[in-house]
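Thread: sanity check for a docking pose with zinc ion

Original post by kr_44:
Hi all, I'm comparing my docking run against an independent structure prediction. Below are the sequence and the ligand SMILES. Could someone generate the full complex and paste the structure tokens? I mainly care about where the ligand ends up relative to the chain.
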Amino acid sequence: MRFADIIGHSELKQQLIHSVLENRISHAQLFLGAEGTGALLLAIAYAQFISCTQKKKDDSCGECNSCLKFSRFIHPDVHFSFPVSPVKGITKPKSVDFIAEWRNALTQNSYMSFLDWTQQLEIDNKQPQISVDESADIIHTLSLKSVEGGYKYIILWLPEKLNASAANKLLKSLEEPEPHTLFVLVSENYEHILSTISSRTQLVQVSRIAEKELTHVIEKNYELSLSRAKNISRLAEGNYNLAVKLALKDDALENSTEPFLAWMRLCYSLNYKELILWTEKMQEKKREGQKNFLANALDICRECVLMNYGDNSLVRISENEMDELKRFSPFITVNNANQIMDKLSKAHYHIERNANPKILFLALSLEMNKLLTQKQTENATV
Ligand SMILES: [Zn+2]
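Reply from moderator J.T.:
Ran it for you. Here is the predicted complex with zinc ion included:
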């Protein structure tokens, strides 16, 4: 994990790099960052940078022997500790018993949440924790010599899951560690860490990923329209893990310009028979489907407004869709755009609160007809 592989945090990355280059390495640090901010990744990248044998001035090399082992989470001088639960055959579980699952989980989703990890462990209702057996294992690891001759690292994910006896067992090592040993704790919740632990560490604050950076990454990685990426980023509040989940959930909506335009044509022509059939189809969709349709309609209207202002650079959709939208966008004008979007938002609101979808979509279609044809009258007078 190089610093460059982690989204955002450029200032913090610089600080960490400088502290290493200036040989100011604190032996016990607490990386504190909310879920999905990449605090664990920063801790790993930090250790990788320290151990890299061909450091660049702004990152580890990513190619030396040490970096290659870090990239697969198999460096022999890195001891990962994380919450685990007893499972069949393992009554006193330690992190090492789940190291294969851990590497796998990190490889698949390096921004994983505690809940994601719990699901990976396939345990029922047992709350994973870091037990005294794990603390004993950490102390044993500390007593061993470094395999590769450099620093040894204990990267402990979620010290808030240390139970009291596990925490007590670690206090001495945290306070007076063996030489060339670094404790890097990674927490999501400072208040839930025992103060005996937190008071023995130096705090490294990891902020939420900036909205702009998150938008950019989500837009690029999931080929979303800019407006959808922005919406997701706003909802995710700097949590990349959540943003990915939202992006995947909304993926099916990406090519839904056509159903929206088909509806607009119906509204415009006001063919009642067809409109009734359409509302029946909408009724068959579950509430989520109806809400998604409306949310998507709102997005498309926003895109149309941007197009009308000649701002095509902001409108990220396929060429086919672009042609279709270009034909439709003049119907969304400065006069009706706000009203159209307002009606769509209100419909979304009412669907969420169990409105009858058939009545709602028929009424909405009639209102759309009024607003869309209003544009034509104005055109005729121009
Ligand atoms: Zn390297």
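The beta strands are 28-32, 78-81, 152-157, 181-187, 202-205. Hope that helps with the comparison, let us know if your pose agrees.
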